[in-house]
Specification:
CATH class of one domain: Mainly Alpha
CATH topology of one domain: Four Helix Bundle (Hemerythrin (Met), subunit A)
CATH architecture of one domain: Up-down Bundle
Radius of gyration: 19 Å
Largest sheet: none
Order of helices and strands: HHHHHHH
Distance between the termini: 26 Å
Number of strands: 0
Number of helices: 7
Strand content: under 5%
Structural class: mainly alpha
Helix content: 55-70%
Length: about 240
């Protein structure tokens, strides 16, 4: 489950395409102003991206990454910054990013099922990660985990990070999620235009956002692969 955790949103996304199609066809949506609703959904997704940015901007190298092939990796125990208020901030960020997209469906049962599946799936992953961390860091881990909540932040516990905030590290590691968010929104807008038989120009605004985020993602990917402009020592 840990290695394949990135595949869950893809499966849910494909299911949502079908759900959204029939929701539009039957007129079962609960918010008539689609543009306003989409911006509400985008705000929720951006909240998730902002939470992820808080994590990535202040984590050291070898932690909080997309380790899939090599499994779980942790050279140090993160316990300051956002990790001082919640133990799994990346999964909190992921939840809001994916929730923002799931909300586009305007199908209450799909949204509730998404939340349930997310909790069931990621609760097991969080448990596996904590077993790994407890074995590696021992008492230091238990001293931290005993007072810091797993998923719902407790802001009273905030302790500033020892590392400076690195915007470069965010650009280096988060461009794909930024692009994928706009890709999801564009696909559902194009689907709505098709069902309601709107002009193709109807999606121009979302298309511009998609192309802009795609160009940015390609540039950042090239800089990451071909240069050291985005490298930050110790990150």
């Amino acid at each position: 489950m840990f290695r394949h955790r990135g595949e869950l949103p893809v499966i849910l996304f494909l299911i949502q395409v079908v759900v959204y199609f029939f929701t539009l066809k039957k007129g079962d949506y609960f918010f008539d102003d689609f543009n306003q609703w989409n911006f509400i959904c985008l705000a929720v997704a951006f909240l998730g991206m902002w939470i992820r940015a808080l994590v990535i901007g202040q984590v050291p190298k070898g932690t909080s990454g997309r380790n899939t092939v090599q499994g779980q990796v942790a050279e140090v125990l993160n316990s300051t910054g956002i990790y001082s208020v919640v133990r799994h901030p990346l999964y909190v960020g992921n939840f809001f990013m994916w929730l923002g997209i799931a909300m586009i469906s305007q199908h209450l049962w799909f949204i509730l099922v998404f939340i349930l599946i997310y909790w069931i799936y990621y609760e097991r992953i969080m448990y596996a990660e904590e077993q790994f961390l407890s074995k590696k860091f021992g008492e230091a881990y238990f001293a931290w985990s005993d007072k810091v909540p797993a998923f719902i932040p407790n802001l009273i516990l905030w302790k500033p990070s020892n590392l400076s905030f690195s915007f470069k590290n965010i650009l280096k590691r988060e461009y794909a999620g930024f692009f994928n968010t706009f890709l999801g929104f564009f696909i559902f807008e194009a689907q709505r235009a098709y069902v309601f038989q709107y002009s193709i120009t109807y999606t121009n605004g979302w298309l511009i956002l998609l192309v802009g985020s795609g160009v940015l993602a390609l540039v950042l990917r090239m800089l990451r692969k071909k240069t050291k402009l985005l490298d930050v020592e110790g990150r």
